[in-house]
Amino acid sequence: MKYVYPAVFEEAEEGGYNVSVPDIPGTFTCGDDMADAIFMAEDAIAMMLADYEDSGRPVPKASSIGEIKTDGIVSLVRADTDEWRRLVDNKAVKKTLTIPNWLNSKAEKAGVNFSQTLQDALIEKLGLPTSA
């Protein structure tokens, strides 16, 4: 899923920027400079929203940028939970499946990597982008 939320960027005393996302409780991060702070905000928002999605909690509604009152800088930040999961959640899980014996024999003789073939087929079936 793709989301856009307003984030508040405030200069930190020690340099860099502190970032908060008012619409998503507990979402705070920081960056060494503005580019790093934006990158970190994207990651923090995606991580928090992936948790909302996984737990079945309703995703908080994003405020309009004009609703945020602060002395800091307010900017919209994009977050993609599907992209975030691809980057951080590559833990392998074991799946048991059945195929006809004749197909198994032919695939083994051909040296087919069953795990990779299943991954490729699922990515194609679900219409997901392939990794570059």
Describe this structure in words.
- With 132 residues, the chain is of the alpha+beta class.
- It contains 4 helices and 4 strands.
- The chain has helices at residues 34-55, 81-88, 101-109, 114-126, and strands at 2-11, 17-20, 28-31, 73-80.
- Strands 3-2-1-4 form a 4-stranded antiparallel β-sheet.
- The protein is elongated.
What's the helical proportion of residues?
A: 25-40%
Care to count the β-strands? 4
H/I helix tally: 4
State the major sheet.
4 strands, antiparallel
Oligomeric category: single chain
Distance between the termini: 20 Å
Strand arrangement, major sheet: 3-2-1-4
List the helices and strands and how they pair.
Elements (H helix, E strand, L loop, with lengths): L1 E10 L5 E4 L7 E4 L2 H22 L17 E8 H8 L12 H9 L4 H13 L6
Antiparallel strand pairs: 1-2, 1-4, 2-3
Helix pairs in contact: 1-2
Question: Can you give me a brief rundown of this structure?
Answer:
By secondary structure, the protein is α+β, with helices and mostly antiparallel strands.
Short key terms for the protein model shown above:
alpha+beta, 4 helices, 4-stranded antiparallel sheet
